[in-house]
Amino acid sequence: MKGQPFYLVDVFAEEEYTGNQLAVFPDAGELSVDEMLQLAWEMHYSETTFITGSQQPEGGFPVRIFTPQEELPFAGHPTLGTAFVVREYLMDDPPDEVVLNLGVGQIPVNFEKKSGALWMTQRRPEFGEIIDRERVAKALNLSPNDFHADYPVQSVSTGIPFLIAPLTSLEAVQECGLNYEYYPTSLDGLDTKAILIFAPETIEADNDLHARVFAEYYGVSEDPATGSANGCLAAYLSYHTYFGRDDINVRVEQGYEIHRPSLLHLRTKIQDEKIVVQVGGNVIPVARGNLL
User: Which member of 76, 118, 148, 177 has the lowest number of beta carbons within 10 Å of its beta carbon?
Assistant: First the structure.
């Protein structure tokens, strides 16, 4: 592993040292799975990505994503951050679109010239089971009354399933926390092992929703900005017409409670009677280097 180059970027960031940190290893074709996992543990960000080859004949760059504990087939901020590194540092003529070949298949990332934002189109959403509020409330040290009565707690997936839980207030979102005694068993039997909670009150006036994501199962007690979970949130908002319509264009703030303020842009549209989910945000390069 000696000499391996890497880049550090902040994803869903409005300025340096905000958003979600990502380490990208652009020349990882010779690394074993154990070595990738070791490097992900060493970096100890929510995720670390490894580009394992050049652009494939059928299109797309092969990429693997690891948390400090395991490999994931898809994750949001690693997709945007890795596409940024590919476009800025690995391609001679930067295109408007970069395609990544992930465990869930090909994910396109588009670059918006005017704003500089990156947008990924996620897989078509799948809506899973609805969960009893009391079960989730106990896992988060909340009261069932903190949950919005008009909308369900439901599992949603656009590549990785998340439990989407609508709360009534910003105060409830800020005050909740994992009940470590009960949380490990609260999700038993469910396809999802991570929770996104949100409320329609925000810290920044320009934003629409305030969110937090807990993913202790994956070695991330709380994530500062979660593109995959917010893709599930976008699908949920559209499916349940949370804003009174089935197409959305909203701003979600996340990460404030752990001092990594982040901004995610969510939009959906209905195409062929199915929900198309896009998640966007800014990527800011922070550092580059080589393993000693």
Answer: 177
Contact 196, 226 (CB under 8 A): yes
152 and 254 assigned to the same domain:
yes
d(CA 95, CA 153): 40
Say how far apart CA 43 and CA 272 lie, in whole Å: 42
For residue 272 the two structure tokens come to 């062929």
Which tens digits make up the pLDDT trace of 40-89? 999 999 999 999 999 988 889 999 999 999 999 999 999 999 999 999 99
DSSP 147: B
The one-letter code for the residue type at 117 is A
8 A C-beta contact, residue 291 and residue 3: yes
Characterize the bridge pairing of strands 61-66 and 97-102.
Answer: parallel
Give the N- to C-terminal CA distance of the chain in Å, as an integer: 9
Look up residue 182 and give its DSSP letter: T
**Residues 154 and 104 reside in one and the same domain:** no
d(CA 75, CA 267) in angstroms, rounded, equals 17
| 157 plus 100 within the same structural domain | no
pTM, rounded to two decimals? 0.93
| Dist. CA 160–CA 21, nearest whole Å | 20
For the beta carbon of residue 94, count every other beta carbon within 10 angstroms: 12
Cβ distance 20 to 260 under 8 Å? yes
Q: Which CATH number characterizes residue 85's domain?
A: 3.10.310.10
